[in-house]
Amino acid sequence: MRKFLAIFILAITVLAGCGKSAPASSDVAGSTLDTAKVDPNIIEKAPKGCPQKTTLQAKSLEAGEVVFTTTNSWYTYHSADWGTLYFVNYEGFDPLNPFAHDYSSKDVTVYFDLKAKDKSALKPGIWNYRNLSENNDLSWINISTKKLSGGVFDDKAKVELTYIGKDYVCGKVTSKDASSSLNGEFISKFSK
After folding, report:
1. Bridge partners of 191?
2. How far apart are CA 133 and CA 158, in angstroms?
3. Measuring CA to CA, how many Å separate 7 from each of 10, 16, 84?
4. How far apart are the C-alpha atoms of 58 and 183, rounded to whole Å?
5. Nearest 5°: phi and psi at 16?
Protein backbone atom coordinates (compact mmCIF):
# COMPACT_ATOMS: atom_id res chain seq x y z
CA MET A 1 0.00 0.00 0.00
CA ARG A 2 2.87 2.37 0.84
CA LYS A 3 4.47 1.68 -2.55
CA PHE A 4 1.21 2.47 -4.31
CA LEU A 5 0.77 5.69 -2.32
CA ALA A 6 4.37 6.77 -3.05
CA ILE A 7 3.93 6.11 -6.79
CA PHE A 8 0.59 7.93 -6.75
CA ILE A 9 2.10 11.02 -5.06
CA LEU A 10 5.06 10.97 -7.47
CA ALA A 11 2.69 10.77 -10.47
CA ILE A 12 0.63 13.72 -9.20
CA THR A 13 3.79 15.77 -8.65
CA VAL A 14 5.04 15.02 -12.17
CA LEU A 15 1.66 15.84 -13.73
CA ALA A 16 1.38 19.07 -11.74
CA GLY A 17 4.80 20.13 -13.02
CA CYS A 18 3.66 19.55 -16.62
CA GLY A 19 0.94 22.16 -16.26
CA LYS A 20 3.36 24.97 -15.40
CA SER A 21 4.42 27.32 -18.13
CA ALA A 22 7.98 27.12 -19.39
CA PRO A 23 10.37 29.84 -18.31
CA ALA A 24 11.02 32.71 -20.71
CA SER A 25 13.49 31.98 -23.51
CA SER A 26 16.98 33.39 -23.39
CA ASP A 27 18.98 34.72 -26.26
CA VAL A 28 22.66 33.96 -26.92
CA ALA A 29 23.86 36.70 -24.57
CA GLY A 30 21.75 35.22 -21.79
CA SER A 31 19.18 38.00 -21.46
CA THR A 32 15.54 37.04 -21.20
CA LEU A 33 13.43 37.67 -24.31
CA ASP A 34 10.13 39.47 -23.83
CA THR A 35 7.40 36.90 -24.42
CA ALA A 36 4.53 39.28 -23.63
CA LYS A 37 1.84 39.49 -26.29
CA VAL A 38 1.75 42.64 -28.38
CA ASP A 39 -1.65 44.26 -28.97
CA PRO A 40 -1.95 44.68 -32.77
CA ASN A 41 -4.37 47.58 -32.24
CA ILE A 42 -1.74 49.72 -30.52
CA ILE A 43 1.02 51.31 -32.60
CA GLU A 44 3.82 51.75 -30.07
CA LYS A 45 5.87 54.08 -32.26
CA ALA A 46 3.05 56.02 -33.88
CA PRO A 47 4.22 59.02 -35.92
CA LYS A 48 3.90 62.48 -34.38
CA GLY A 49 0.33 63.66 -34.91
CA CYS A 50 -1.12 60.15 -34.66
CA PRO A 51 -2.92 58.43 -31.81
CA GLN A 52 -1.53 55.04 -30.81
CA LYS A 53 -4.81 53.36 -31.71
CA THR A 54 -8.08 53.95 -33.50
CA THR A 55 -10.96 54.91 -31.20
CA LEU A 56 -13.47 55.83 -33.91
CA GLN A 57 -17.05 54.91 -32.99
CA ALA A 58 -20.04 54.74 -35.30
CA LYS A 59 -23.66 54.74 -34.15
CA SER A 60 -26.75 54.30 -36.27
CA LEU A 61 -30.11 52.53 -36.07
CA GLU A 62 -28.91 49.86 -38.53
CA ALA A 63 -25.32 49.43 -37.31
CA GLY A 64 -25.88 49.83 -33.58
CA GLU A 65 -22.72 50.97 -31.78
CA VAL A 66 -19.40 49.94 -33.32
CA VAL A 67 -15.89 50.84 -32.18
CA PHE A 68 -13.33 50.26 -34.92
CA THR A 69 -9.86 48.85 -34.37
CA THR A 70 -6.51 49.94 -35.73
CA THR A 71 -6.07 46.64 -37.55
CA ASN A 72 -9.26 47.35 -39.52
CA SER A 73 -8.59 51.02 -40.35
CA TRP A 74 -7.36 51.79 -43.86
CA TYR A 75 -6.49 54.72 -46.10
CA THR A 76 -6.59 53.94 -49.82
CA TYR A 77 -4.53 56.28 -51.99
CA HIS A 78 -6.13 57.06 -55.35
CA SER A 79 -3.95 60.04 -56.30
CA ALA A 80 -1.98 62.71 -54.45
CA ASP A 81 -5.12 64.85 -54.12
CA TRP A 82 -7.62 62.08 -53.28
CA GLY A 83 -7.95 59.17 -50.88
CA THR A 84 -10.63 57.11 -49.15
CA LEU A 85 -10.67 56.18 -45.47
CA TYR A 86 -12.25 52.81 -44.60
CA PHE A 87 -13.13 51.48 -41.15
CA VAL A 88 -14.57 47.96 -40.82
CA ASN A 89 -15.52 45.72 -37.92
CA TYR A 90 -14.74 42.41 -39.66
CA GLU A 91 -11.60 40.56 -40.70
CA GLY A 92 -10.38 40.06 -44.24
CA PHE A 93 -11.00 43.56 -45.62
CA ASP A 94 -9.10 44.17 -48.87
CA PRO A 95 -8.35 47.90 -49.34
CA LEU A 96 -7.70 47.26 -53.06
CA ASN A 97 -11.12 45.66 -53.49
CA PRO A 98 -13.21 47.28 -50.73
CA PHE A 99 -16.66 46.23 -51.94
CA ALA A 100 -15.91 42.53 -52.49
CA HIS A 101 -16.99 41.55 -48.96
CA ASP A 102 -20.20 39.55 -48.42
CA TYR A 103 -21.80 41.23 -45.42
CA SER A 104 -23.09 39.26 -42.46
CA SER A 105 -25.82 40.83 -40.33
CA LYS A 106 -23.26 42.37 -37.91
CA ASP A 107 -20.72 43.72 -40.42
CA VAL A 108 -20.30 47.49 -40.62
CA THR A 109 -18.18 49.63 -42.94
CA VAL A 110 -17.62 53.37 -42.62
CA TYR A 111 -15.99 55.18 -45.51
CA PHE A 112 -15.52 58.67 -46.92
CA ASP A 113 -13.38 60.44 -49.49
CA LEU A 114 -11.03 63.33 -48.83
CA LYS A 115 -10.11 65.44 -51.86
CA ALA A 116 -8.30 68.66 -52.71
CA LYS A 117 -10.34 70.60 -55.27
CA ASP A 118 -7.24 72.32 -56.69
CA LYS A 119 -5.59 68.91 -57.26
CA SER A 120 -2.79 69.68 -54.78
CA ALA A 121 -1.46 66.90 -52.55
CA LEU A 122 -3.47 66.21 -49.39
CA LYS A 123 -1.87 67.58 -46.26
CA PRO A 124 -2.88 67.87 -42.60
CA GLY A 125 -5.86 70.14 -42.15
CA ILE A 126 -9.62 70.24 -41.72
CA TRP A 127 -12.29 68.96 -44.10
CA ASN A 128 -15.68 70.50 -43.32
CA TYR A 129 -18.69 68.58 -44.58
CA ARG A 130 -20.07 69.92 -47.86
CA ASN A 131 -18.35 73.29 -47.57
CA LEU A 132 -18.18 74.39 -51.20
CA SER A 133 -16.06 77.47 -50.49
CA GLU A 134 -13.08 75.47 -49.17
CA ASN A 135 -10.40 73.57 -51.07
CA ASN A 136 -10.70 70.49 -48.84
CA ASP A 137 -13.66 68.45 -50.10
CA LEU A 138 -15.63 66.13 -47.78
CA SER A 139 -18.90 65.56 -49.61
CA TRP A 140 -20.23 62.49 -47.77
CA ILE A 141 -19.71 60.13 -44.81
CA ASN A 142 -21.16 56.65 -45.24
CA ILE A 143 -22.11 53.94 -42.72
CA SER A 144 -22.91 50.65 -44.49
CA THR A 145 -24.49 47.45 -43.20
CA LYS A 146 -25.96 44.40 -44.92
CA LYS A 147 -29.37 46.08 -45.16
CA LEU A 148 -28.53 49.74 -45.65
CA SER A 149 -25.87 52.11 -46.89
CA GLY A 150 -26.63 55.48 -45.34
CA GLY A 151 -24.95 58.79 -44.77
CA VAL A 152 -24.35 60.93 -41.73
CA PHE A 153 -25.93 64.27 -42.61
CA ASP A 154 -24.40 66.83 -40.27
CA ASP A 155 -23.64 70.27 -41.70
CA LYS A 156 -21.08 70.74 -38.91
CA ALA A 157 -19.32 67.39 -39.49
CA LYS A 158 -15.60 67.55 -39.99
CA VAL A 159 -12.55 65.40 -40.49
CA GLU A 160 -9.21 66.70 -39.26
CA LEU A 161 -6.11 65.06 -40.70
CA THR A 162 -3.17 65.33 -38.32
CA TYR A 163 -0.68 63.18 -40.25
CA ILE A 164 -0.32 61.89 -43.82
CA GLY A 165 2.55 59.59 -44.70
CA LYS A 166 3.37 56.47 -46.71
CA ASP A 167 2.84 54.39 -43.56
CA TYR A 168 -0.28 55.86 -41.93
CA VAL A 169 -2.93 58.53 -42.27
CA CYS A 170 -4.21 59.87 -38.94
CA GLY A 171 -6.80 62.25 -37.61
CA LYS A 172 -10.18 62.59 -35.98
CA VAL A 173 -13.81 62.73 -37.04
CA THR A 174 -16.77 64.52 -35.46
CA SER A 175 -20.26 64.16 -36.93
CA LYS A 176 -23.77 63.62 -35.63
CA ASP A 177 -27.25 63.85 -37.08
CA ALA A 178 -30.66 62.81 -35.75
CA SER A 179 -30.08 59.06 -36.26
CA SER A 180 -26.34 58.45 -36.63
CA SER A 181 -22.89 59.63 -35.60
CA LEU A 182 -19.20 59.04 -36.18
CA ASN A 183 -16.70 60.30 -33.61
CA GLY A 184 -13.16 59.54 -32.50
CA GLU A 185 -9.53 59.34 -33.53
CA PHE A 186 -7.92 57.06 -36.09
CA ILE A 187 -4.57 55.75 -37.26
CA SER A 188 -5.15 54.09 -40.63
CA LYS A 189 -2.73 51.93 -42.58
CA PHE A 190 -1.69 53.41 -45.94
CA SER A 191 -2.55 51.34 -49.01
CA LYS A 192 -1.74 52.24 -52.60
Report:
1. 76
2. 14
3. 5, 14, 68
4. 7
5. -65, -35
